[in-house]
Structure formats: structure tokens, C-alpha cells
Amino acid sequence: MLTLAMGFIRKYLHNILRFALILCLIYFVYSCWGLSFKSTEKQKSAPTFPFIRNTFTNRTNCKPKKNIFFMKTHKTAGTVVQNILLRHADLHDIFVGLSRTRDPKFGYRDGRYFNRDFIRKSDSPINMLCHHMRFDRSEVSAILPNDTVYITILREPGSLFESLFNYLHYDCKTFSRLPLSPSGMEEWINHPRRYFRGAKDGPLWWFGKNSMFYDMGFNNLNNDEEYIQQSILEVEEVFDLVLLTEYFDISMVLLMDLLCWDLEDAAYLALNARAVSGEFVPEVRRRKVEEWNHADTLMYRHFNKTFWRCVKEYGVEKMDKNVKKLNELNQQLQDACVDGGAVGVSRVRDPRNRVYNPRGVEMKGYNLKHGAKELKICKDAIRTENKWFEYFLHKQYGV
């Protein structure tokens, strides 16, 4: 009887042990599957191509910056810089200051200087400003923290004039007085005083003369040499880094170094650019543009010199190495996301991904690969300025 009882107990304990082992096995499998599922879910919003990591800045010597002011000038590749900044802001929950109106530009179309009242009210402190404005140092500094990094971008005046004449031709009376053609452009710059009629000559009149100088908050009609030089020194005093459109990849390497961000943060696709690149600017025309846009020219020349001093301090060999890495990152981004390369905006299949296309020119855009349509990095890389504005309105304000 005792033997029978002991056998029953042993069988009972064996069943309990087996059941416990099964429960442990189920828990182990579920845990692994759950981790795998979470990892898969995360990958939907993360890059799925082999970005180069930890090969750029010595992270023990700097802390990533989050307080940033970007003075976005016009037709200088500023939209690409803005896209890079906003992607980072979104990823790290950096609060972006937005216009209180539905126009992302801070009163710019009316020619008004930036004013703190243009900012949409929020309980959160503002870390970043990066939309078009006419710069006012005191008003911007009143909003942003004291440790804010100030950056802007300039473009060689000859190529800038060609871009403005085409892109803004029908928005500016000064340009639209002549045909949108190479001969019309040539006539305008040969005789600018026939067609440029100064302030109040319709909306956006300032694009006819020293538009970068105007954006920076100065009097673009003042040709006094001392005034121009003093204004340039003020820009140098305020801004930590002035990028150059013609050396964009080098500019991005310098920017990532200044901000202590990873080089992969700077991977980009060209945005708000024409489908057909601008024509070569002959030297004769370039000299005429430089003479007419004298303030822009002096400002560009000054910061061209400071730019190359920055490159030298950074290290030429290190720069070459990191520009090559950035080119690799850009190619990886395009290969992972873009179906067939850049196309004219009329051939962009998803209307949400089409940029503004002014009359008389064709802008370029992108079609995403089928498998890339749900990848956040891909959607963000081609997100237009207006779509970013709407995105942050919803994220930060629930609008």
C-alpha cells in the first residue's frame, strides 16, 4: 500500500515538473518572439540600410546641440538644411518654433522683420527656429536660449540671380517685365535700372537687388561701403557658421561637427530644386550681377574666406574622408528609398510628395519605392517644407 502511494506521489510530482518546464518554455518563446516583434516594429521607422555609425566626431569631447537658429535664405539649398534639422528635431523631440498663421514664413511676404509675436504660443520652451524670415537679432534672441547655435547659408550671387530670375519670375514685377528666357535674363542684368524700381514695386520686390543682404535684415538698397562692411561684421559676430551652397557637402560636414551630430543625420536628397539644372553663368554676366548686387557679393566673398579657414582648421584630409562618407550615405538613402531617381514634379505619383511648382519652370521630386513608403526616414527625407509645418503643428499643438 505504501509502495503504491509513493509511486503515485512520484508520478504526480513528475507531472508537475513537466508542466512547469512547459510553462517556462512557453514563456521563453513568447519573450523572444515579443522582442523580435518589437524590433520589427521599430524597424518600420528606422533606416534599414547600413548607415555608417560612430566614425565621425569624438563624442567624449562634445554634447549634441539642440538649441539652433537657422536663417533660411532663398534659393540657396536652405530647404535641404531645414529638412536635416527638422528630421533631427522630430527624432529627439526638440521643440520647433512655428508661425502663428498657416504660412510657415514669419511675415516674410509682407517684408516685415521677424517679431516674437509671430510665434505660435506654447508652454514648451522653443529650441529651434528654421523657417524663412527677415532676420531681427534682438527678436530672435528674445525667444531662443543663450546657448543657441546660429547658422545660415549663402550662395554665389551669379548663380543665385539666375535661379531667382527663373523661379520667381512671375512673382516679382521687376523680373516679369521681361520674358522668361535667356535673352530676357541677359537684358535685365545688362540694364537693371530700367526694370528694377525699388521698394514697394509689388510683392517680393527685394529679390531684384541684394536679396541675401535683405534676408539678413539689412537695407538692400544702401550702397554705402562702410554700411555694408559693418553689416557683414555684424553677421560674423552673430553667426557661428555660414554655409555655402556651392560646397554643400563640405558645409554639412562642418555643420555636423559644430552641432556634435552623427554624420548620418546629414544624409539628404536634393529638395526644391529645378528638374533641369540652371544654365552656366558666363563670366561677363557674373561680373554684372556682382556689380549690381554689390552687398551680396561682398558678403559672399567675406564668408567664402571664413569658410575655407574653417575647413583648414577642421583638417583637409579628414574633410575629404567625411565628404566621401556623406556621399556614400546619400547614395544609400537614395537606393533604399527612391524609385528611379529624381523626376519632374508632374511625374511624382503621390500628390502629397509634390513640391510647389512656379509657373514657367519644372521642379523635381521623388517617387518612393513600394517597400519604402512606410519607412519614416524615406518619407521624412522627401517631406516638403509645408508638410513639415503641418506635421509639427499636429505633433506639438494637436492641430
Write up this protein.
- The chain has a four-stranded parallel beta sheet.
- It contains 15 helices and six strands.
- Helix 2 (78-91) links the parallel strand 1 and strand 2 (128-129).
- Helix 4 crosses helix 11 (283-292).
- It is globular, with a radius of gyration of 27 Å.
- The longest helix is centred in the N-terminal third of the chain and has 42 residues, at 2-43.
- The chain has 399 residues and is mainly alpha-helical.
Summarize the structure.
The protein is mainly α and 399 residues long. It has helices at 2-43, 78-91, 137-141, 157-167, 173-176, 182-190, 192-195, 211-215, 225-238, 248-259, 283-292, 294-314, 316-337, 376-381, 385-397; strands spanning 68-71, 128-129, 149-154, 241-244, 343-344, 364-365. It contains 15 helices and six strands.
Task: Record the SSE blueprint.
Elements: H1 2-43, E1 68-71, H2 78-91, E2 128-129, H3 137-141, E3 149-154, H4 157-167, H5 173-176, H6 182-190, H7 192-195, H8 211-215, H9 225-238, E4 241-244, H10 248-259, H11 283-292, H12 294-314, H13 316-337, E5 343-344, E6 364-365, H14 376-381, H15 385-397
Parallel strand pairs: 1-2, 1-3, 3-4
Antiparallel strand pairs: 5-6
Helix pairs in contact: 4-11, 9-12, 10-13
